[in-house]
Amino acid sequence: MQPVGAGVPLRVDIAEKTFKSAEGVQVTALKELAFEVRQGEFACLLGPSGCGKTTTLRILLGLDRDFRGSFQIPGAGDGNRTAAVFQEPTLLPWRTVEQNVRLALPKAMRDADLDRLFKTLGLADMRTLFPSELSLGLARRAALARAFATEPAVLFLDEPFVSLDEQTAERLRHLLLSVWSARPTTALMVTHNLREALMLSDRIIVLSPRPAHVVGYFDVRLPRHNRNPQVMEDLLRSFHQKFPGAV
Ligand SMILES: Nc1ncnc2c1ncn2[C@@H]1O[C@H](COP(=O)(O)OP(=O)(O)OP(=O)(O)O)[C@@H](O)[C@H]1O
């Protein structure tokens, strides 16, 4: 297996990010927000609604350059090294599932063998379907396939399981873990679902209400296959003891 991101962590050090509202009022979204995600670690940014999680991801994805501070993305400058999965699957409607995935690939990888990836995500029979033929759950799986196919050094996920029924969301979390375990990639996922964060992460980065800064870390050192319902209850209890009222 290829080393992913060559040992370099994702480093974030944002001094300040402000927005100006339509009425000209300044809103400080992020203030002294600093953290690292180690190579191959799956981290969740967990914080109350409106605290600045999506703003952070937008900055890290280069979609918002208007902030004070800096960050370092492993593998930056080395081709297509980040991938993102958003709440909206953002698939091209006139392309099939497979075409959507292949179009995201750098030219040299366009003919890559994607059989295993599609199989792991339960999409083997859906490759020729168009987005309009997919349920939201299937469209989210296609978006996951597109992100993992590029073999990124860092993967950003912004609440990829919201607005799904719980059963579908749970199936997708397991599929995400299967595909991530096949190639553990430095990942940063935004969520305000504590249970989801405890199931998926190596480390939870707990954020304050706006302006977001790091309140503390919660490390989940157990292998994921050991996180059974009883263990999850214990983890929830310890989290609430450490961060009372955090979410
Ligand atoms: N383009 C914008 N203009 C003005 N204010 C903005 C803009 N984008 C975000 N904000 C404000 O910045 C703050 C942080 O927003 P952000 O979407 O990052 O929060 P969040 O933690 O992702 O919220 P949620 O969990 O509800 O998705 C909010 O108060 C929001 O209203």
UniProtKB/TrEMBL annotation:
Gene3D superfamilies (alphabetical): P-loop containing nucleotide triphosphate hydrolases
Presence of the UniProt keyword tRNA processing in the record: no
GO MF: ATP binding; ATP hydrolysis activity
Pfam families, per database record: ABC_tran (PF00005)
Cited InterPro entries: AAA+_ATPase, ABC_transporter-like_ATP-bd, ABC_transporter_ATP-bind, P-loop_NTPase
Keyword presence, Transport: yes
ABC transporter domain segment(s): 10-234
UniProt keyword annotations, A-Z: ATP-binding, Nucleotide-binding, Transport
Similarity comment: Belongs to the ABC transporter superfamily.
Family matches, as PANTHER family: ALIPHATIC SULFONATES IMPORT ATP-BINDING PROTEIN SSUB 2, TAURINE IMPORT ATP-BINDING PROTEIN-RELATED
Name of the protein in its database record: NitT/TauT family transport system ATP-binding protein
Organism expressing this protein natively: Neomesorhizobium albiziae
Organism lineage: Bacteria, Pseudomonadati, Pseudomonadota, Alphaproteobacteria, Hyphomicrobiales
